[in-house]
């Protein structure tokens, strides 16, 4: 097998390597609001949930050059944002929203995406996304030489498209989420394999 010593690689080469290994990755499609009122939109594929009660999500936000991306600035400034899950019809919009624009340019307006008001935060959500989660900032940790910011937020409201929930669970096939793989490439679910249910200790009494 090929041996690769990460101490001999720069950050960009390690990033390309890791994003081809850690696949597929779910995509957090995030709207955030700047102090001046610009609605920013950007996708992040270093994304997971970290708590179920209260529900908390984490995204890793890197830099663009020497500065942090607009999303990190906005979340730390306003402490509110929305994480969306996009489906296949939104794949091109997700990809196009990754183009870097100056802070005064709204990717939402640039892409002509319709928005709706949220219930508990000021940031608007995307009307076309099958899932939108209103979040409030809870914690930020910095990692590595590049000082990537792991931003953790609490979900204060879920918005889920009608027909996606069945007995409290999301029908993943109907959700039709997209995932990120290495480079400017994306993946869909493909075949879903169902195995036998295994016993797990209940996480709570409800």
From TrEMBL:
Q: Which GO terms describe its molecular function?
A: FMN binding; oxidoreductase activity, acting on the CH-NH group of donors, NAD or NADP as acceptor
Entry's transmembrane regions? none
**Requisite cofactors:** FMN
**What Gene3D superfamilies does its record include?**
Electron Transport, Fmn-binding Protein, Chain A (2.30.110.10)
Q: Which UniProt keywords are listed?
A: Flavoprotein, FMN
Q: Which residues form the Flavin reductase like domain?
A: 20-172
Which SMART domains does the protein's record reference?
A: Flavin_Reduct
Q: Which InterPro entries match?
A: Flavin_Rdtase-like_dom (IPR002563), Split_barrel_FMN-bd (IPR012349)
UniProt superkingdom: Bacteria
The family line of this record is:
Belongs to the flavoredoxin family.
Listed name of the protein: Flavin reductase family protein
